[in-house]
TrEMBL record:
This protein's record includes keyword DNA-binding: no
Keyword Transport: no
Domain of life: Bacteria
Species annotation: Lactiplantibacillus xiangfangensis
Signal peptide interval: none
Protein name: Integral membrane protein
Amino acid sequence: MRRRYAMGLLFILAMVAIATILNDSELILPEIGALTAGTWVYRKPTWIQKPYKLFLVPSGTAVIGFLINRLPWDYPVKVLVGVGLMLLLMKVLRSNLAPAFATGLLPIIINATHWSFIVAIFFWTLSLMAGVYLQREPRMKAKDHTIRPLQMLGFLTLIVLWVVGVWLLGRPQMAAIPPVVVVLFEAIQNTDYSYKMAIRQWVALTGAASLGVGVHWLIASWLLAALVTLPLVYLLLGILKIKLPAAYAFPLLALVLPATMEATLPFAAAGSAALFLGALVSYRFLANWLPTLQTDDDQA
């Protein structure tokens, strides 16, 4: 695990180093951190069973987000339309690669306008795919499935509630927090999801966002900030005893967000995670409680 983590860290730092040399923040792709953690470090079977999708799906959603960002729409509308189209693409490609949402939302969040962003997406996802092919274990298999219609409806409902809520509160810039969206997409498909896991994931997401912003405020250098923060996130997840690839996106996200958005990132992460994960746990509780209540009534 430590060797894989070291390789993943060097891979991510190489991306940040190139962006630093070229002085182009659009070349820093936060979800490459999550994808690297999930594929190279944690080796999630559902993410690595078909490595070509590591290039195809995130690149496709990135193109969707990049093109939508060029339209003269309000920011929250771009987010909602983008998420809908990304869901459709993932359904067509039969993929559950959750970080693809983040690569699609990123150009909208940072207002990416240069095609260098798309080139960077292509390059780093191809590199990631190649790394997975080289490390892949031939016998590793996982069931290939996509999100179910009812789960998709719940996912979209929660996204709409959050986007509309922050829009009404006059905080439209908080409409999209990609790592939290990624966690929701995976959690909503997990039938064993519990309130204990929700609490730990909430702490991890909020903590990672706070670390990313706090360290970047103290250290202006992109490369040095990433070098400090990524191991801290690793330690945080170790303390919480969870594997959460999405958390590794926050240290990089803090580097590329506009200053006005960066300051609110920990609060937006905490709020959106509380809504999404809290609603999911509440739904699961009610779904399990109502049949039990009905059984008790029948016995009475």
